[in-house]
Amino acid sequence: TATTTPAPNRGKPTLPDAQTVTAVRHWTDWLFSFRVTRPPSLRFRSGEFVMIGLLGDNGKPLLRAYSIASPNWDDELEFYSIKVPDGPLTSKLQHIQVGDEIILRPKPVGTLVLDALLPGKRLWLLATGTGIAPFASLMRDPESYERYEQVIVMHTCRTADELAYGAELVEQLRDDPLLAEMYGEDFHKRLLYYPTTTREDSPRMGRITDNLTSGKVFADLDLPPMDPEHDRAMICGSLAFNIDVKAVLEGFGLREGANSEPREFVVEKAFVGEGI
Ligand code: FAD
Ligand code: A2P
Hints:
Number of domains: 2
CATH class of the largest domain: Alpha Beta
EC number: 1.18.1.2
Family: Belongs to the ferredoxin--NADP reductase type 1 family.
Structural class: alpha/beta
Protein name: ferredoxin--NADP(+) reductase
Bound molecules: flavin-adenine dinucleotide, adenosine-2'-5'-diphosphate
Order of helices and strands: EEEEEHEEHHEHHEHHEHE
Strand order of the largest sheet: 4-3-6-1-2-5
CATH superfamily of the largest domain: Nucleotide-binding domain of ferredoxin-NADP reductase (FNR) module
Cofactor: FAD
Domain FAD-binding FR-type: 14-115
Helix content: 10-25%
Strand content: 25-35%
């Protein structure tokens, strides 16, 4: 029935495609993660992205692509975000609090899905910066361990504090009693983690491209060099990173695949850069 006084928000969604924020965590001045309610009808494949946002000043939705960082079995959705100081969306999004609403268009898409890769022994997840987000989903999905003997996460950031979100997640998974029950006591050997920094001293350093071409990562993890028979990979970072890693993987004989034509690796941009 129509009412003349504004209805108080009784926790009911008021925006189109609204979801409610259930948790927010700030990792650095430039990075935060948050969780929102999941529309009951939303099905997605781990690694996919959706459009999310807020109402802009003009009253129209201001939406951006975001990888879903939570696995497909989770009741809620998690996102991991940059804070761009003058970014149209993230200058506002960084201030969300529990109980606030965001807009979420429930149409997941993306190339970083297991179905776009051929079966193999090892799955390499190669990311810089917020490119870890789709892999935060995939590394929590049991399907990754059903399909591959080992999942290897290489994450590179400029400084060590930017690695914290991924580091904490991997640590939790490697110590997860449920995963140990499902996959055996040595589950930690099935999820390998190779974090590096490039502009701050840390135990491991260097660009992903350099650590692959020099063979350092294979030596450090006691793995054979990548080969097209056994190794599969997903790439997610800046355009320059994606282009360079793609060339390195092709050098090992791996070919780019797609949903319609599964092959040895797939690529997706973590963001659209200036002038692109
Ligand atoms: P924008 O106007 O969109 O961006 C301003 C500038 O900031 C860009 O030109 C670029 O130089 C820089 N920038 C934007 N995003 C990033 C980033 N993530 N890392 C480093 N620099 C960036 N962003 C996330 O934070 N998390 C995600 O999971 C995520 N998933 C994405 C998936 C896809 C397929 C694509 C295409 C983009 C994704 N993005 C993600 C980027 C996101 O869509 C927005 O660009 C970002 O939220 C900034 O929005 P904005 O309106 O504040 O600034
Ligand atoms: P570097 O510090 O040597 O540039 P950015 O913030 O510029 O997107 O970079 C995030 C991380 O990705 C940094 O550690 C950076 O290393 C690395 N990186 C940037 N571009 C490339 C590239 N083309 N190939 C490999 N690593 C890259």
